[in-house]
Design brief:
Blueprint: H1 12-23, H2 29-37, E1 46-52, E2 58-61, E3 64-68, E4 74-75, H3 86-96, H4 105-109, E5 112-115, E6 119-130, E7 133-146, H5 156-162, E8 172-176, H6 182-195, E9 205-209, E10 217-218, E11 221-222, E12 230-234, H7 238-248, E13 253-255, H8 262-273, E14 277-283, H9 287-291, H10 294-301, E15 307-312, E16 319-325, H11 326-331
Parallel strand pairs: 8-14, 8-15, 9-12, 9-13, 13-14
Antiparallel strand pairs: 1-2, 1-7, 2-3, 3-4, 5-6, 6-7, 10-11, 15-16
């Protein structure tokens, strides 16, 4: 569980309801019955349900993987448990796509389909190319149901640094290894800045959601609460989205996830030159590792980011290891 979160004490029933209401309806009948037989305690902290044809049905709870048998009991030895069939994959894909893969062709080409609640289903199978571009995936062999959660209040520890009293939000870079809660925290930052806090008024926000993960858009509507002053550019490349936003949506701040390409760096510099704060993230374990990447070292040297926040899973997802001002690093 992400620490320092308001309303995060009684997550057990909430997690169970999320999975039973939003995930279970999209599973094949056999797997649906297994998940519904699971003990309540295993719903708490459940992050993924994995279906791989010819392999045991797996769930990920925290940092551990478990196999499930036909009675919904967990097996720590992953060779045991219910073996997922090709029919399970087929039935689940049919349910996810409303029996019309053609209608989801664009999402499939990106490797996942979003379902109600903002949850994502990652797809594995035979990749079909058209020239140098991925056209679609067929003959599906695996599905990864990733459970999306909102944890309102989880950015409280960080917010005073991002939004100094009576000032504008400041550009902030989250440095995090995968699965350390950065996406959940970025959502909460967007919501808080959009709504306004005791520190200041609500801001016009734009979320550039290239991988449809921050807002969890389903059929044109964000499934996550990002606040009343937030616009979403869904499935939009980050660099293009940043430029579009500053030209047409008048944001005080932009939020996007996982930068790293040359065009991302150039767009961030254009945003900061226009006086628009950028709140984003990169994959790295710490500041030192981030500085070893030439593009990021170049970006940091420009002073584009005022605040650096390092996250880990040491005390659970969202553990804040360090909050530093970039100018203090430079002076040091």
């Amino acid at each position: 569980m992400i620490p320092n979160c308001k309303g995060g004490v009684n997550m057990e029933l909430k997690d169970e309801d999320i999975i039973k209401n939003n995930i279970v309806p999209y599973l094949s009948l056999s797997i649906k019955e297994i998940i519904l037989k699971m003990k309540t305690q295993y719903f708490k902290g459940l992050e993924e349900i994995r279906l791989r044809s010819g392999q045991p049905l797996l769930i990920k709870v925290g940092d551990k993987d478990y196999a499930l048998d036909e009675q919904g009991n967990i097996e720590e030895k992953l060779k045991r448990g219910y073996v997922v069939s090709a029919e399970d994959i087929y039935r689940s894909v049919a349910s996810i796509s409303d029996n019309s893969l053609y209608a989801f062709e664009e999402e499939i080409s990106r490797g996942f389909i979003t379902i109600p609640g903002g949850h994502r289903v990652g797809l594995a199978g035979q990749v079909v190319m058209k020239g140098h571009e991925l056209k679609t995936i067929k003959d599906f062999s695996g599905l990864a149901f990733r459970i999306a959660r909102e944890v309102q209040g989880c950015s409280s520890e960080i917010l005073s640094h991002i939004y100094p009293r009576d000032l504008e939000p400041v550009s902030t870079l989250f440095i995090s290894a995968p699965r350390c809660g950065k996406t959940t925290i970025l959502r909460d930052v967007a919501r808080n800045l959009s709504m306004g806090t005791a520190r200041g008024r609500g801001c016009n926000m734009v979320v550039i959601d290239e991988r449809s993960e921050l807002a969890g858009v389903y059929r044109g509507r964000a499934q996550m609460n990002l606040g009343p002053r937030t616009d979403v550019l869904d499935a939009c490349p980050k660099a293009q989205g940043m430029i579009m936003a500053i030209r047409s949506l008048s944001p005080h701040a932009l939020i996007t996830d996982e930068i790293g390409r040359r065009e991302d760096i150039e767009a961030i510099q254009e945003c900061t030159n226009a006086g628009v704060a950028v709140i984003t993230s990169i994959h790295a374990r710490n500041i030192e590792e981030a500085e070893k990447r030439p593009l990021l070292r170049e970006l940091l040297a420009t002073g584009a980011f005022e605040i650096l926040v390092v996250l880990s899973r040491r005390r659970g997802p969202g553990t804040v290891e360090e909050i530093v001002r970039w100018d203090s690093l430079c002076c040091g």
